[in-house]
């Protein structure tokens, strides 16, 4: 009990003795964890957007007008796991669609003697990256005359998704490294400021863990407070950003449920605790190990 | 706890010999003065007992423990049996008198109520009860020395090492401190006092070990401070 009381008192002393430094560390942590959180939310939204666009992406296979060809192509397309839905479009249905699209000009279609539109199979893929593969498979079938799909869009989406993921990973690593460095230095300054005192503690029989623990607790508190404040900041700024984007770019599909911020917040808090723990442990234990070494 | 030095040499790089070939046994409960001029090796000898230093040659044993062989994570347990009083007190400046004495108990996990009881007992014994809420800088030299002794004895160590405990004090205060050390020794604690204070060594006659240039040159029961008068 006495030990716990001492550790808590000492941790408070560490935090208050270098109050300016503690505050600076918390502010830096807030900025860093906000950046991390914002980049996670950006990645999640980009993925959501890409998935939404991917959901609309179809591969249209035009089929030769022979008996059983439509069914054969539809059956083959349905057999792929990467395909989410298959729809058969007959020549008549295709003509109706064209008429609907032409609107007032639909009368022109009646001038045609016969329906020139071939029947087709509309295939929806689960991911944009599967579109090219499915298109290749379908064109290889003798029943298929032509395959049309937004290949360029599919590839671009893939590239955007890849780029955003990589960029966010870099932002994440750089941000966490900065947070770790700032915390590490804060704890180190605290340790060096109490160099003499640590020597005395070791000499009167304090164990290494006992000496190190207040510093670890200090690091955990600084990291956690920084992360928690960044979650609060993220909560309000995400709400504002979403409502602004919904007003100015209503066609954008974004994650509007703010619970996502809380889930990201959980990740940030865990990161705050872990970074605080690891950095302070490294900063303090190395010094204490050296100080306790006999010459 | 018995302390034994067997052929101990301590050399600092590049070639400073602080102690040379020391053979010495200090029995449990003994009171020993370490005397000798500055640089004779008194502090080095004390630091070998707490294993702040390890011998370059030979063996130092405290109780049954060869201090060289003790694992560094077990060092804390050895040191909990050894109280140390420094010449410059080395009190923790931001802690009150009470907290300084309680601190050494807290670091070893003594329960709260026991810390309170023991600290109050020590404060009473040292006559520091009224000063318990003051910071070290608000105390006189003698009071600070008493706090340092209080801190050293708070965990009832088997061994008490005191490096110049009366170094900065006037005769009256030195007397007080010596009375205190004698009473601690009377309760069975082994005491080693490194001192330059001729008055206390001659007034409170105990075993005297004299070092010069790292060598043990005199070991005398109920000895005096000096025999040849050349330092």
- Helix content class of chain B: 25-40%
What's the helix-strand series of chain A?
Answer: HHEHEHEHEHHHH
Uncertain segments of chain B: none
The major beta sheet of chain A can be summarized as: 4 strands, antiparallel
Fill in the keyword field for this structure.
heterodimer; A: 295 residues; alpha+beta; Alpha-Beta Plaits; 2 domains; B: 231 residues; alpha/beta; six-stranded mixed beta sheet
Task: Explain how this protein is built.
The complex is a heterodimer of chains A (295) and B (231). Helix content of chain A is 73%, strand content 8%. Chain A is α+β, with helices and mostly antiparallel strands and 295 residues long. Chain A has 2 domains: 2-53 and 160-291, no CATH class; 58-149, Alpha-Beta Plaits (2-Layer Sandwich). Chain A has a 4-stranded antiparallel β-sheet with strand order 2-3-1-4, sandwiched between helices. The radius of gyration of chain B is 17 Å and the shape is globular. Chain B has a 6-stranded mixed β-sheet with strand order 6-7-8-3-9-10, with helices on both faces. The longest helix of chain B has 16 residues, at 171-186. With 231 residues, chain B is of the alpha/beta class. Chain A binds chain B through residues 1-3, 5-6, 13, 17, 196-197, 200-208, 210, 292-295, and chain B through 12, 50-54, 72-73, 75-80, 82, 84, 90, 92, 94, 102-112, 114-115, 151, 155.
At a glance:
The complex is a heterodimer of chains A (295) and B (231). By secondary structure, chain A is of the alpha+beta class.
